[in-house]
Amino acid sequence: MGYRLLGQSGLRVSELFLGAMGFGAERDGAVPMPVARDILDAYLDGGGNVVDTAVNYSGGESERVLGELLTGRRDRVVLATKYTASRDRTDPNGYGNHRKNLRLSLETSLRRLRTDHIDLYWVHVWDRHTPVEETMRALDDAVRTGKVLYVGISDAPAWVVSRANTLAEWRGWTPFVGLQVPYNLLERDIERELLPMAQAYGMTVATWSPLAHGLLAGRSDPPTARARAAVEAVREVAAELDATPAQVALAWTRSGSRNVHPIFGASSVRQVAENLGAVALTLPAEAVRRLATAVGFTAGFPTDFIAECEETEWLVGPNADRLDPR
Prior knowledge:
This protein is α/β, with parallel strands linked by helices. The protein is built from 12 helices and 10 strands.
C-alpha cells in the first residue's frame, strides 16, 4: 500500500480508504463486532490507515464500534467522520450544516469514538439553508480548538466547494482538503465538473461506491442492459489480467487521476484482501479505454462544447497545434 498527501496538507493517507458504514454491533444487516474487528485488523495490516464513518451510520453504532475497536491504536489511524444528518428527529435544529448542529454532532462523535479529536471531519451533504460562510467559519473554529485537524466536504456542487475554498483563502480560514463523491464505471458524473475542480484545488477525492454497491464485483445480477455491459467488460478484463472483477473495478477508478482514493466497504476479511489487491493492479491503456467505452458517457455542456471549439480554427486560429499546454 502506498501513501499520498491529503489534499494540500502534509498528512499521509493510504491509497484505499476503509468505509465503516456497515459496522453496527447487533443491528440487523450490520457487520457484528468480531467480524468488524477482523476487517479492521486486515485493513491496517495491509497498510491502510484511513477509516471513514459518519454520525448517523447504523444509527450511531458505526462510531461506537469503531471507538471500541480503535482503543489502544487510535493514533495510528486517520479517523474520518461526517456531520449534517439528523441526530434527533424531534429537533428542527438536529440536522444541517449550521453552527449548532456542527458543535453538537462533533461532541457526539468524539464521545462515541472515544477520542479527543477527529483527523478528517466531513460536511456530509450540502445544506442549502445554511450560508456557506457560517459553515466554513464554524469548521475553522473546530480546527482552532484542536478538536478537528482537517476538513472536507461530501456530496455538494462544484460551485459550492469552489466558493467555500475561495472564502477560506480570503479570510484565513481552514479550507476543504478533500471531496467525497460517488464514482464508478456506471456513475461518472464527477468527471463533468467535480473532479476537474478538485484537481485544480489539489483536493483528495475520496470516492464512495467504487463497486456500484457490489454490482461490478459480480455480487448481484445487473438490473439493466447498461449495467450488464459494464459488468461483462469488467469480467473480460479481469479474466485477461488474472484479477478479480472487484480489483479491476477499483483499479479503473484510480486510473484517471492520482487524486482519487476509493472507499471500500467489506463484510469479510476475504473481501478486504481482495480489494487491497487492487493497488498492485495496473490496467493497460487499452483495458482502461475498453472499460470506459463499455457504457455511454458524455461530459455534456460546456465541457464537450469547449473541447470541440478548441479543435476548430474558428476559435483558436491556425497556430493551435504549435502550443505546448504542459
